[in-house]
Design a protein that fits this description.
Structural class of chain B: mainly alpha
Helix content of chain A: over 70%
Helix content of chain B: over 70%
Largest sheet of chain A: none
Low-confidence stretches of chain B: 236-240
Oligomer: heterodimer
Mean pLDDT of chain A: 89
Shape of chain B: globular
Largest sheet of chain B: none
Number of domains of chain B: 1
Radius of gyration of chain B: 23 Å
Number of strands of chain A: 0
Largest interface: A-B, 35 and 28 residues
Distance between the termini of chain B: 39 Å
Radius of gyration of chain A: 18 Å
Number of domains of chain A: 1
């Protein structure tokens, strides 16, 4: 138990340190999301957004920015032999899954710390919905981290690499996006945040996180066997 | 290897389908509200149920593959999903025809059952590019199994999320107590469901037989092409 917790901390620390030093994923994700907001401003020809349109723009942008990070999540492992090292080490292999998912969660939260304020600055008049939105973001990020880590670890060992993550991940996260946009829509409604079916959507998000967290944890071992 | 019992199974399937269609056209009453177009229900709904169950069954085979390491289960899982995707195309087509006749549109977005099925179908459509992007056959089988398990868990969750997001227009005949269907319609429906399920099983068996046969042919051809042990060059004529 302690050894797998130590392994988790070591892998997570390694990932975050590598990201801080190389800045490979995060700046790209943040820049991508800001540019996408600008494109939406002209694509929709709106200078302010609310309700379902705001929720859609925000979540589509965050999801595609997340795909960028998910694509790169295991690249270092493949290129520098990290997979072999994990296989050789006398640790529980699931530690790699939890650590990578935690790293991805940190990236996503960092992305949102940048992207959501920019979104609010660009498009929102009423900022009251942003506080409960943080809860929705956190729950959606957990699910995205679980599925993203699973798909990324498989895609990186395939021939089609960067192609597979968007291809397989997008249909897989459709329920997550339905729940996330469903909860976000009333929060960003014109004339103050509403809480229409807010709790129900949070429950769907939680259920998604639970199911795919467990599935990912259970099947990840088989992806490392060789 | 898989070919045993294929002939009686095929005959039974044809008989069941013929009997089912006879029931649909000569026994089941014509629905007062929708008329003759409602008959497509006996094809559309069983196809959809069988396809969805087939997806989940593919996931169960995948679990068996990961637990035992026997590649046979991966073949079962692959063929189950493959057949369900084909059934899925039929579901979308028959559903569209019914929707056009009944609601006046080929596709209705605020209809949870349609949208859920489309999402599940798209999810499983990515199974092929995913599977064939992995070269090593052993790893391919393992990764495909992981995909099948993940997607199998996704099916019910997706239906729940989409249903919660939208209104209710799609006829939900089984939601009400005792089905809400008259007995003759229920009987016909159950018969058709059994026939379509049998069709699925038969097609899966055919596909497995074809796959194992072509694998055998490939193995034999390789054995023929390989130089026999002890012999020299394959190009030079053998001199004895």
């Amino acid at each position: 138990m302690t050894s797998s917790r130590a392994a988790f901390a070591a892998i997570l620390g390694k990932d975050l340190r590598a990201e801080l030093r190389t800045l490979q994923s995060l700046p790209a994700m943040a820049l991508f999301s800001v540019t996408t907001f600008v494109i939406f401003r002209f694509g929709l020809d709106r200078t302010s957004l609310s309700g379902s349109l705001a929720a859609g723009v925000l979540w589509a942008t965050l999801l595609f920015a997340a795909v960028l990070g998910i694509n790169r999540l295991f690249v270092a492992e493949r290129e520098e032999g990290g997979f072999d090292a994990i296989r050789l080490a006398p640790i529980d292999r699931s530690a790699l899954f939890t650590a990578k998912a935690a790293a991805l969660l940190v990236y996503l939260l960092a992305l949102e710390v940048i992207a959501v304020p920019v979104f609010a600055l660009f498009f929102l008049h009423d900022l009251g919905g942003l506080v409960p939105l943080a809860l929705v973001l956190l729950l959606a990020d957990l699910g995205l981290a679980a599925t993203g880590t699973l798909i990324s670890s498989m895609a990186v060992n395939s021939r089609a690499r960067d192609l597979l993550v968007p291809l397989v991940l997008l249909p897989l996260v459709v329920p997550l996006m339905i729940a996330a946009t469903g909860a976000t829509e009333p929060l960003l409604a014109l004339g103050g945040p509403g809480y229409d079916r807010f709790g129900t959507w949070l429950m769907v998000l939680g259920l998604y996180d639970l199911i795919f967290g467990l599935v990912g944890y259970a099947v990840f071992d088989f992806l490392l066997e060789d | 290897m898989f070919g045993k019992g294929l002939r009686p199974l095929s005959i039974a399937t044809v008989a069941m389908l013929a009997a089912g269609l006879s029931l649909v056209f000569f026994y089941a009453p014509i629905e007062t509200d929708q008329g003759i177009i409602q008959k497509i229900f006996y094809l559309h709904v069983p196809l959809a149920i069988v396809a969805l169950v087939g997806f989940v069954v593919g996931g169960v085979f995948a679990i068996a593959h990961l637990r035992t390491g026997n590649r046979k289960w991966d073949a079962y899982s692959y063929v189950s999903i493959h057949m369900s995707v084909i059934f899925g195309v039929a579901v979308l087509l028959t559903g569209s025809i019914w929707a056009k006749a009944s609601w006046g549109h080929w596709w209705v977005w605020d209809e949870p059952t349609l949208v859920s099925f489309l999402i599940v179908f798209l999810m499983y459509a990515t199974y092929y590019p995913f599977r064939y992007a992995i070269e090593d056959p052993e790893r391919q089988a393992r990764y495909a199994s992981v995909f099948a398990i993940t997607a199998g868990a996704f099916v019910p969750l997706n239906f729940m999320a989409v249903r919660m997001a939208q209104s209710l227009v799609h006829p939900r005949v089984f939601a009400t107590a005792n089905g809400g269907l008259p007995g003759s319609m229920m009987l016909t429906f159950l018969f058709c469901l059994a026939a379509i399920a049998l069709l699925w099983v038969t097609l899966v068996k055919f596909e497995l037989t074809a796959k194992s046969a072509s694998g055998q042919v490939k193995r034999l051809r390789r054995a023929l092409d390989a130089p026999a042990p002890g012999s020299g060059s394959r190009i030079a004529p053998e001199v004895s």
